[in-house]
Write a structure and sequence with these properties.
- The protein has one domain: NAD(P)-binding Rossmann-like Domain (Rossmann fold).
- Helix 1 runs parallel beside helix 2, helix 1 packs across helix 9 and helix 3 runs parallel beside helix 4.
- The chain is built from 9 helices and 9 strands.
- The protein has a 7-stranded parallel β-sheet, with helices on both faces. Strands 7-8 form a two-stranded parallel ribbon.
- Helix 1 links the parallel strand 1 and strand 2.
- It is of the alpha/beta class.
- It is globular and about 50 Å long.
């Protein structure tokens, strides 16, 4: 029987790359998305072309009931959840003096509370299985901060703390929990940056290049695999050496 990976925010960018990587390795994929069903369905078709099954489940990670429904959809269709990748995230960048409480909390609700919701919704299932892997998407910004991203940095730093706490709670049930902290990855979000900004970013990266979504996907698969069976509670930077 194929293993099953549930991936939030899997309709584009890093989430899409993770879905395709796990599909390539023979996992059935549950694709969560909030916005574009068209884009999510394209990912589903690409996964199925790799010889696995894939299904869609629309839902907002900031709503706990949606995450319960997501996990129920996976169990109803496949009977198990082997891997959860919490990839959903947003940015609403603004300097602190101009940032209001709504802008701050919107990012916290999706990035941090959304990660908590998905973990809580899957925990009872994985505890019953006495097995499972949870991978949370943090960020180097959660480690070093960044001007104009107080909300984003706070949410990602929170994910790091959440990861370590949950890893300690769930380890006795053979559930591993780790986080990936990407640096600057070439996605739709970096495509809109002007050349000067990109040049400044590259100067801060020892490898002098942006990462690719595939780099993050490869790390996610490694953390889910038996090659990482003795790794839990860790934050793995995929950042070209940006944070050392």
């Amino acid at each position: 029987m194929n293993k099953v990976a549930v991936i939030t925010g899997a309709s584009r960018g890093i989430g899409k790359a993770i879905a395709l990587k796990f599909a390539t390795e023979g996992y059935n994929i549950v694709i969560n998305y909030r916005g574009s069903e068209e884009k999510a369905n394209q990912v589903r078709l690409e996964c199925m072309a790799l010889g696995v099954d894939a299904l869609l489940c629309q839902g907002d990670v900031s709503c706990y009931e949606d995450m319960e429904r997501l996990m129920k959809t996976a169990i109803d269709n496949y009977g198990q959840i082997d891997v959860l990748v919490n990839n959903s995230g947003i940015t609403k960048d603004q300097l602190l003096l101009k940032m209001n409480s709504d802008t701050f909390m919107d990012v916290i609700d999706v990035n941090l509370k959304g990660t908590f919701h998905a973990i809580k919704a899957v925990t009872r299932i994985m505890m019953k299985q006495r097995a499972g892997v949870i991978i949370n998407m943090a960020s180097v910004i959660g480690e070093i901060g960044n001007a104009g991203q107080a909300n984003y940095a706070a949410s990602k730093a929170g994910i790091i703390g959440l990861t370590k706490s949950v890893a300690k709670e769930l380890a006795p049930r053979h559930i591993r929990v780790n986080a990936i902290a990407p640096g600057f990855i070439a996605t739709d979000m970096t495509d809109i940056l002007d050349d000067k900004t990109k040049e400044n970013i590259l100067q801060a990266i020892p490898l002098n290049t942006l990462g690719e979504a595939q780099d993050v996907a490869n790390m996610a698969y490694f953390l889910a695999s038996d090659q990482a069976k003795y790794v839990t509670g860790q934050v793995i930077n995929v950042d070209g050496g940006m944070v050392m």
